[in-house]
Inverse folding.
């Protein structure tokens, strides 16, 4: 698989909660940071989304917002509106005036990611993905939104299951989407894949994680000098090439250990270590515990 597909496969995303959000008149709410990937799909009207120390952004009908990790944020009917603190809820939410037709409507909620590698892999993704309707409607993504909006307006049998599956497909589509704002994405895998030379090196590493990769060899695949490649890779990915490879190998190992389906010898061979002993030493140095203990802890964790 390609690097992004590999990452999504290890994250195993699932739509955990989805709920209608609506508002009328003037209103504003503020949420604390919470440890769950969040999303919002605007179905009607517009609102303003603001993060601490950043300029508010306007979101309107057809827009999609994805937060791989959810920092503190405010949602309001207009910029600068007074915001009251609220807690996340699993049922429909109405802001502002409670009577009358809503002038803002959205579907919001959260995803779950596989806990084993979530902390590591989420660092490869941008803090915020905003797909405006003006760009999303002309793509496959726009068709997902149309289907989801239609399903939300019905009460057909199986409605909740269809919504959940559409949201999961939209998550994958959002993570691989590249629009006019792609260059503004912070360091991470998506930014690296946006650079053709670095993308070739990433694809090579993911295509054969067992290989004895060196910076010189990867630079050759990228068609760059060793020093230029190393600097560019670090700038885009936030870490050096071999460090990225090591993190990815450990992510694969952690998933295999958590499943309990493979021996240490097999795991070591599949990710490029000469022996189970060499793998165990590297794993302990990186994770602070031996592979066997990690597997036992993962098996007992809820």
């Amino acid at each position: 698989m390609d690097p992004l597909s590999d990452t999504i496969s290890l994250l195993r995303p699932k739509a955990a909660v989805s709920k209608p959000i609506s508002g009328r008149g003037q209103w504003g709410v503020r949420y604390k940071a919470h440890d769950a990937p969040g999303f919002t799909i605007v179905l009607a009207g517009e609102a303003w989304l603001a993060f601490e120390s950043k300029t508010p952004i306007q979101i309107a009908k057809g827009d999609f917002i994805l937060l791989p990790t959810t920092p503190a944020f405010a949602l309001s009917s207009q910029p600068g509106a007074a915001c009251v603190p609220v807690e996340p809820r699993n049922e429909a939410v109405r802001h502002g005036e409670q009577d009358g037709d809503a002038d803002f409507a959205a579907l919001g909620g959260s995803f779950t990611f596989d806990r084993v590698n979530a902390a590591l892999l989420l660092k490869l993704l941008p803090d915020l993905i905003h797909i405006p309707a003006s760009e999303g409607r002309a793509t496959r993504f726009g068709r997902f939104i149309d289907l989801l909006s239609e399903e939300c307006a019905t009460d057909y049998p199986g409605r909740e299951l269809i919504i959940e599956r559409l949201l999961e497909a939209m998550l994958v589509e959002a993570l691989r989407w590249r629009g006019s704002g792609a260059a503004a994405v912070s360091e991470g895998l998506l930014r690296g894949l946006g650079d053709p030379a670095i993308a070739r090196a990433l694809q090579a590493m993911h295509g054969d994680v067992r290989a004895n990769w060196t910076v010189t060899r990867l630079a050759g695949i990228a068609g760059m000098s060793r020093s230029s490649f190393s600097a560019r890779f670090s700038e885009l990915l936030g870490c050096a090439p071999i460090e990225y490879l090591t993190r990815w190998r450990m992510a694969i190992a952690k998933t295999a250990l958590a499943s309990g389906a493979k021996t240490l010898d097999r795991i070591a061979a599949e990710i490029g270590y000469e022996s189970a002993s060499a793998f165990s030493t590297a794993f302990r140095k990186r994770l602070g515990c031996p592979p066997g203990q990690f597997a036992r802890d993962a098996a007992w964790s809820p």
Notes: The first strand starts at residue 14 and ends at 24.
